Each structure stands twice: as structure tokens, then as C-alpha cells.
């Protein structure tokens, strides 16, 4: 369905989005910590590290080694981005809750949902067979 060049372009677009998301998380954390009356949360401070480590670095490696590695398809990239976003938002939420000085049972949902999405992305990477141009034209 997609050529290698189109997959690389999709991956680069996703990389750019993850860079913006990481910058947003960094700025959000800095501003929130500034107005938190010297109450800090490591979940808030290091929330930017989740998209940095789980999305930006792997995408850079895949783009640089695209001649030797299998390039993930659109479904895999989308599910992986959802996993990274879920884990990051969960970290920010946990940070807000800690700074506020309370607890909430819903903070346990984010790592579980993010983990399920990550496993689904890995599953689609290894087991999802994308349709080729010929298969698509034959079914039309």
C-alpha cells in the first residue's frame, strides 16, 4: 500500500510531531513547577523523557537504518504514538495529583492502557502484513 519512501516520510512526520510533543511537555512541566509553590513531582519533571526515549530516539534509529531495518507501517506508528501519548499524559496527570497533594486511583489506568497499546503496536509491527499496490488494485 505504501512504498518505502512514503513510509519514511510518515515516520519523519511522526518524529516531528513527537519532537513538538516533547517540547510542549517540557514547557508545561517547567511552567507548572514554577507555580507549584516549590512542591515538585518527578512524574511532572521527567514527563518529557517518555516521548524522547520511546518515540524520538527509536524513530531516528529506524530512519537512519531504514536500508537495514523493516520500516513500520502507518497502523504501527499510529498505535505506538497513542501508547507514548497515553504514558506521557498519565505521567503529567500523576505529577499534577502529587503536586496537589492527593491521590487518585485513575492514575493506575494510564500505564496499563499505554502498555496494552505498546504491545499492540509491537504485535502489528511483527505480524501485520500490509497490502501491496497489486493486492489493492485487484480488490478494487
- What profile does the largest beta sheet have? none
- Arithmetic mean of pLDDT: 88
Rg for CA atoms? 18 Å
Whole-number total of structural domains: 1
> What proportion of the residues is helical, as a percent range?
over 70%
Number of contiguous helices? 6
Structural class of the secondary structure composition? mainly alpha
Series of secondary-structure elements, N-terminal to C-terminal:
HHHHHH
Strand segment count: 0
Shape: elongated
Q: Give the low-pLDDT segments.
A: none
Strand content: under 5%
Distance between the termini: 13 Å
Features:
mainly alpha, 0% strand, 140 residues
Q: What would you note in describing this structure?
A:
It is a single chain. The protein is mainly alpha-helical and about 140 residues long. The protein has one domain (about 5-130). About 75% of the residues lie in helices and about 0% in strands. The chain has six helices and no strands. The chain has helices spanning about 5-35, 40-45, 50-65, 75-100, 110-125, 135-140. It is elongated. The mean pLDDT is about 90.
List the helices and strands and how they pair.
Layout: H1 4-34, H2 42-45, H3 49-64, H4 74-100, H5 109-127, H6 133-139
Structure summarized in a few sentences:
It contains 6 helices and no strands. The two termini are 13 Å apart. Helices cover 74% and strands 0% of the residues.
